[in-house]
């Protein structure tokens, strides 16, 4: 369990499920044999507040008020693309009061982050929840335009002091925090988060270097500067076993 004295985050696990139809049993049996488990995030508020990704709440137990950011995520993304310098588009649903909030069960894993007056850029669709003291804004990395196309790579940026919970496609024990002191090169998009002070680019690998790049076109991801990157080394293995999604 993590969080402040007035807000606690707890990961609940459904160790077994009882299918109610033959079709469901045929689907669930091989899933259960692999050890895969559905997880649910329980957030306990004590006269406090948190921000939650829109659409992940399943039910609330207690006198908790809900405030939804107006404008819609789609409009916020458009504004962020037009104004990448400020990252316009603070998207959130704020829950305030005393009681318990439960998210919808998911096969995804939960990665806790602790911020102390810093900024961390996270992959799109991984944000789940955070303390109300943390600012959640959209971040547009225009340096990736040349190879990836479009207006830029839209992610999310967490700023401030407090706790955050991300939903990630690999077990937390398989994620490594790599300290960058100059330059880090990843063969493909293996990162789930990085400190905002790093410069991130997508580049074509030099001839003879990483010739078998998993990107299929010899494209690598480079982080330059001083900071940290949360790397998922086992992501290609999970992808080979089936579609990996950061949504439920």
UniProtKB/TrEMBL annotation:
UniProt superkingdom: Bacteria
Cleaved signal peptide residues: none
InterPro entries xref list: AIM24 (IPR002838), AIM24_sf (IPR036983), Trp_RNA-bd_attenuator-like_dom (IPR016031)
Pfam families attached to this UniProt entry: AIM24
Coiled coil: none
Protein name: Uncharacterized protein (AIM24 family)
Organism: Deinococcus yavapaiensis KR-236
């Amino acid at each position: 369990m993590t969080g402040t004295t007035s807000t606690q985050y707890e990961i609940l696990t459904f160790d077994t499920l009882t299918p109610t139809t033959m079709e469901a049993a045929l689907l669930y049996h091989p899933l259960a044999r692999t050890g895969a488990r559905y997880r649910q995030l329980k957030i306990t508020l004590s006269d406090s507040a948190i921000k939650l990704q829109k659409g992940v709440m399943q039910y609330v137990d207690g006198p908790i008020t809900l405030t939804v950011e107006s404008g819609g995520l789609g409009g916020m993304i458009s504004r962020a693309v037009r104004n990448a310098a400020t990252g316009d588009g603070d998207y959130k649903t704020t829950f305030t009061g005393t009681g318990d909030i439960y998210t919808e069960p998911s096969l995804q894993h939960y990665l806790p982050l602790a911020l102390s007056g810093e900024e961390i850029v996270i992959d799109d669709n991984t944000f789940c929840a955070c303390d109300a003291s943390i600012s959640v804004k959209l971040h547009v990395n225009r340096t990736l335009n040349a190879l990836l196309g479009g207006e830029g790579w839209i992610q999310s940026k967490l700023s401030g002091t407090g706790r955050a919970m991300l939903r990630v496609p690999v077990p937390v024990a398989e994620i490594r925090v790599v300290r960058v002191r100059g330059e880090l090169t990843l063969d493909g998009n293996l990162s789930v988060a990085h400190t905002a002070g790093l410069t991130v680019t997508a580049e074509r690998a030099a001839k003879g270097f990483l010739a078998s790049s998993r990107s299929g076109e010899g494209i690598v991801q480079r982080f330059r500067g001083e900071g940290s990157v949360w790397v998922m080394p086992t992501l290609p293995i999970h992808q080979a076993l089936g579609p990996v999604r950061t949504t439920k």
